[in-house]
Design a protein that fits this description.
binds L-homoserine, elongated, Dihydrodipicolinate Reductase, domain 2, ten-stranded mixed β-sheet, Rossmann fold, six-stranded parallel β-sheet
């Protein structure tokens, strides 16, 4: 603190660090009122001050040395906004050991290293807040930690990645192919130059690990969460889904069933009536349910400088209040232990399956026999002949164990009349 004003150091003058910096300048008076203390940026660290930015930091606040900021005795709160996992972990660890509270929107670091960072913060009597790590501005982590703290949460279903939701929305509304929408999204700045973490579901897996830790009190190694991305989704599947009353979304799903947890990220058919089906474009939403709270849905911008900066600024204010009232370190790790994860093969799910087959008598029956043999029950079938002795069949299966469906599909693809199993997409009906 300096002259009774909380001092913060920002590591990373990128999108989120910049958003936070602008909010703290623009809303300084309001922030002082709600925090009951002034909050001032004492230093901003970035390795490249030549990079073009749409905000400017006075030269006397700029540095390229993160440890100069972390070790400044006047600085009370460190905001880590550099992203990535390993360097960020070193900085956050050093900040906690120096007795500073930390705010970070870094989902990768919290998902991977939260179990070491949060107890360390408890030992040093400081706060680590990470609201911006999931759902951008959406106050979902604080809702789970505080407003819903008394409730048993049975399920969380989230659209937690804006890039993939934007791509799927464009594919649905314009009928454009995945690769074309991705290229356009990159040109327009909606998708990263390297979009792998978004489109292959890794970003959503990190966010699901954080949500599950707070909702279910369980530590989950991110590598153990089932993951499938959206690169195989086609306008054909989106169109069939529409015909039978569904949209396709990339979902992060966490379910508690007795003492087991199901955690998975994959594209899914979602009924058009489901509140999450209406979440379009870059927006995120998280649908939470439990016996006491019923159904709760939180919606908002999951990325961007000012939305995510707002979540980070909220955390900064929370840390500042705790410093003023001497109540730091109130919210240590809530995880009770390792999660007991249900293997994917044991998960019960409905599925949509599209295949191309030879158009001749008996084909449907042979496939249906193999499904029946593995106890897979058919809910509906659409068959369309393409006119050149090839037909496309779309099956929707009743809910059943995933391993039964996989066994049936392995047998079906060996049939001489089956040209290709084109798509297998789970259906979320609850
Ligand atoms: N890359 C993320 C998304 C935003 O597309 O939603 C940051 O978490």
């Amino acid at each position: 603190m300096r002259d009774g004003i909380i001092q913060i150091g920002i590591l990373g003058a990128g999108v989120v660090g910049g958003g936070l910096y602008q909010i703290l300048q623009k809303n300084a008076e309001h922030i002082e009122q709600v925090a009951e203390v002034g909050i001032e940026v004492a230093a901003v660290c970035d390795i490249d001050w030549e990079r073009p930015r749409d905000f400017s930091v006075p030269p006397d606040l700029r540095t390229t040395d993160a440890y100069e900021v972390i070790n400044d005795p006047d600085i009370d709160i460190i905001v880590e906004a550099i992203g990535g996992s390993e360097a960020a972990l070193d900085y956050v660890t050093a900040a906690i050991q120096a007795g500073k509270s930390v705010v970070t929107p870094n989902k990768e670091m919290i998902a991977r290293h939260g179990e070491q960072i949060l107890p360390l913060a408890g030992q040093h009597g400081v706060d680590v807040q990470f609201e911006g790590s999931v759902g951008g501005v959406i106050p979902v982590l604080r809702s789970l930690k505080e407003s819903l703290a008394s409730a048993q949460i049975d399920q969380i279903i989230g659209i937690v990645n804006g890039t993939t939701n934007y791509i799927l929305t464009e594919m649905t509304e314009a009928g454009t192919r995945f690769a074309e929408v991705l290229a356009a999204a990159q040109r327009e700045g909606y998708a990263e130059a390297d979009p792998t973490a978004d489109i292959e579901g890794t970003d959503a897996v990190n966010k699901l690990a954080i949500l599950a830790a707070l909702a279910f009190g369980a530590r989950v190694p991110v590598e153990e969460i089932y993951r499938e991305g959206i690169s195989q989704i086609t306008p054909t599947d989106i169109d069939y889904a529409r015909q039978i009353g569904y949209v396709i979304k990339l979902l992060a799903i966490g379910t508690r069933d007795g003492d087991q947890l199901e955690l998975r990220v994959h594209p899914a058919l979602l009924p058009v009536q489901h509140p999450l089906a209406a979440v379009r474009g870059v927006f995120n939403a998280i649908f939470i349910s439990g016996p006491e709270c019923g159904e709760v849905m939180l919606y908002g911008r999951g990325a961007g400088a000012l939305p995510t900066g707002t979540a980070v600024a909220g955390d900064v204010i929370d840390c500042a209040r705790n410093i003023v009232h001497g109540s730091q370190g109130r919210t240590p790790c809530s995880c009770e232990g390792e999660a007991n994860l249900r293997p994917m093969g044991e998960i019960e799910s409905s599925a949509y399956v599209r295949m191309s087959v030879t158009d001749q008598p008996g084909v449907l029956g042979r496939i249906a026999t193999l499904l029946g043999r593995e106890s897979v029950s058919i809910e509906s079938v659409i068959q369309k002949s393409s006119g050149n002795e090839v037909a496309e069949i779309v099956w929707v299966m009743h809910k059943g164990p995933e391993r039964h469906l996989q066994a049936a599909l392995r047998a079906i693809e060996k049939l001489d009349v089956v040209e290709q199993i084109c798509s297998v997409i789970r259906v979320v009906d609850e």
